[in-house]
Structure formats: structure tokens, C-alpha cells
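ok trying again, last paste got cut off:
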Amino acid sequence: MKIKDERGISLILILIILVIILLIVFVSLRIVNPQDDKQNKNESNTLITVEESDTPPIPDGYYYVGGTKDTGFVISDNIEDMDATNYTAQDNLKGNQWVWIPVNDIDSIIEKRKSENNYYEPGMVVGSDGTAFDYTEYALAGFDSYEDMENEIMNSYQTMLESVRKYKGFYIGRYELSENGVKKGSTLTQKFWYELYKNCKELDDDNDSVMTIMIWSAQWDATCEWLKSCNYNIEDSSTWGNYANNTAEGAGEYRETGYSEEWKANNIYDFAGNYWEWTQEPYRNVYRITRGGHWEFTGDRSPANSFDRTLPTNEIAVVTTTRATLIIMP
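nice, full thing came through this time. structure:
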């Protein structure tokens, strides 16, 4: 009986040891580097902090920062910004930041514009005789020839439309283009349209899954429609933009983009007022259309949905900048 008891005890000890070994192996397999875990979470486009139905697509190399699809879904190209505990604390964020614009039907938005105004997108600006502006300044925009520039502008417009139709939206720069990129900081101004166009193109950092471009007027209109659906007044933006008649501290003067939380709409800063923002829309073969108004005017005179026009070679336009958009390749 003693031998039998000892054998029983030995078997129990062996089983206990095997269970402990299995637990150790299982735990060791679960241990990962925190940075690797962040990368894996992003690559699978799986977000813990929002409901799946409210999650816009996140391209490779970009990371969820904060917000929802209804209140402004923010992503960044810097992993250190991921799941920021306070993503409104702008100085804490390091990457270029983008906000998702939901778009149900981009074609109906374009058709509406066509019925209300002259609409020229996509198109080139070459002057009355066809030998000025884009025809001579293409190198400033980063092209080897006028033909290369024309091909890219025409093709990128179609790519934008295909992407917006497929994904039902696009990402807009959270800020006006600044000297730091799409971040809080001194707004980039006193530049030719071509230089700002090139700056926008270079923001994708050679990421083949996305395309960064200067905003099209069609995208501006889509953003206006979304903000309007969220009860922002796009025809008199006095209360939520940097205008002469806005009451927030610092209003009625040039301010760096991201200066005031009062001039933010669904996590997008300075969409109304502050600076006129160049788009890619041409006008009468001489101008590029600017949108959104600026700080010298009142918010009812030049609201978020307003238009103006400026020569693309007007580098002394101290009230003009632009805004980039991020397109997921379709």
C-alpha cells in the first residue's frame, strides 16, 4: 500500500509540474513589446476605444488619436500620438494630424455646386494666351514639365473621387498648413500656390497606401455639408472662426493655426476665418479659388463656405495659405 501511495503522489506531482510549465510557456508567448503591440493594433485597423461601426478606415502608418466619426475622428502619422489621453492638448502631439470627413455622395455635392456656380475642377491655370502660370511655374510645384503637372492634377482628382466613393469619406488636415506640417504652429503663408501644392504632396512621406494633396473645392464643400449637419453655421461663421466680429481672445488678427479652442469645429481648427485657404479649383484660367474667409472680415461676410480668388503667383498674399487632405488609395 505504501508503494502504491507513493506512485499516486508522484503522478500528481508530475501533473502539477506539467501544468506549471504550460502556464509559463503561455505567458511568455503573450508578452510583447508595447510599441509592437501598438503597431499590430493599427495594422489590423482594430480600435479599442470606439465602436466598430463608428470606425473610419485607418491607412497603414497612421494611428488613432481620439474622437469619433460624429465629433471628429483624429489620426496621426506618429505612433507616439496613439490613443492620446488628452488629444485636445495640441502641444503634446507630435505627428501630422487628420480628421475624417464622412461623405455619403460626393457626386451630388459636385452637381449641386455646378448648378449654383461656375465649377472648373479639375483644370489648369495658364493665362489668356496659354503660356503663363502653370505653364511656366510647374517646377515650383515639384514637376519636371507642364505635361507632368497636368497629368497628376487630372489623375489625382479622379483618384480622390474614387477613394471618397469607395470609403465614403476622406481625411482633412486638422490645421491650416503650418511651418511644422499639419500641426499647430505658424501658418505657412506668403508662398506661391505652387510651393504650397508641393508642401502638401510631400506630407505622405512616400507611403504608397495614401496620397496627400492640396484640398479640392469639392472636398471643401463636402466638409461644409458635414459641419452644417452638425449644426455649425457655414453661412455666418462669426461664432466659431477667427473673424473681426468674433468675441474670443485674440480674434480679428493673424494667429497661428490652432491658436484657440474657440475656433475649432469637430476637431478641425481654423476652417472658418483666420486665413483664406487656396484650393486646387481654377477660375477663368488665371486664378485659383480660395475658401473660408479670413480674420479681417466678419463671419457673415466671408463665412466657412465663402469663395474668393487669387493669382497663383501672388506670394505677397499675406492672408492666404492652404489645407492638405489625406486620400486612402482606392
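cool. The chain has two domains: 2-43, 59-328. The helical segments are 2-30, 34-43, 106-116, 134-137, 146-167, 193-201, 217-229.
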